[in-house]
Design the sequence.
């Protein structure tokens, strides 16, 4: 089973419960309908944010290369759409038997409400995905390819033995590199000798 379907069903259950609680609280406190609705929407958005944060951190730990990471945007978009359609349909059915739930006709519950739910899940989740990846990436140590304590000639030599090189140099090219290094080394030694003689 794909990962977005069970997540979508979980968020659908959460949205149905949210609307049931919303209807009950508003019926008990009609003057505070706006505050109640806003608080419940923020709570639902926090749940989506936490889900996206855990997803982003897990994805960054699984792959250090950003180009090889999963398409979490499509995952959370599908989660939002599934949650919206399923919760809209279930809430509409419940409203036929429980009058305290505020539900529109079937059409808006399957079109308008799913779009709102998808945005309510997708936006905070994707913000959290980026944050989760950033938190993991900033703690990942930076790889150094040069040996500490070696001279410049050792560093150049390491490049020839570096397995990360994307091509295998030919024998002629390796000989040319070796000759170049020897020429530079000789010039360096001659310059030091001249400076030493001058100081005498």
Sequence:
């Amino acid at each position: 089973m794909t990962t977005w379907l069970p997540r979508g069903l979980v968020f659908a259950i959460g949205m149905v419960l949210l609307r049931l609680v919303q209807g009950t609280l508003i019926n008990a406190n009609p003057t505070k309908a706006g505050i109640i609705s806003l608080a419940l929407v923020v709570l639902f958005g926090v749940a989506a944010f936490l889900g996206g944060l855990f997803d982003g951190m897990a994805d960054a730990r699984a792959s250090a290369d950003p180009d090889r990471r999963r398409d979490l945007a499509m995952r959370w978009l599908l989660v939002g759409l599934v949650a919206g359609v399923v919760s809209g349909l279930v809430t509409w059915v419940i409203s036929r038997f429980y009058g305290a739930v505020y539900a529109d006709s079937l059409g808006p519950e399957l079109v308008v409400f799913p779009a709102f739910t998808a945005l309510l899940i997708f936006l905070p989740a994707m913000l959290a995905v980026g944050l989760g990846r950033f938190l993991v990436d900033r703690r990942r140590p930076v790889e150094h390819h040069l040996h500490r304590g070696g001279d410049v000639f050792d560093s150049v030599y390491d490049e020839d033995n570096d397995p990360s090189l994307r091509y295998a140099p030919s024998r002629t090219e390796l000989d040319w590199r070796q000759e170049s290094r020897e020429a530079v080394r000789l010039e360096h030694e001659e310059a030091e000798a001249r400076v030493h003689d001058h100081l005498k």
Observations:
- The chain has two domains: 4-137, 152-199.
- Residues 144-157 have pLDDT under 50 and may be disordered.
- Residues 106-137 form the longest helix (32 residues).
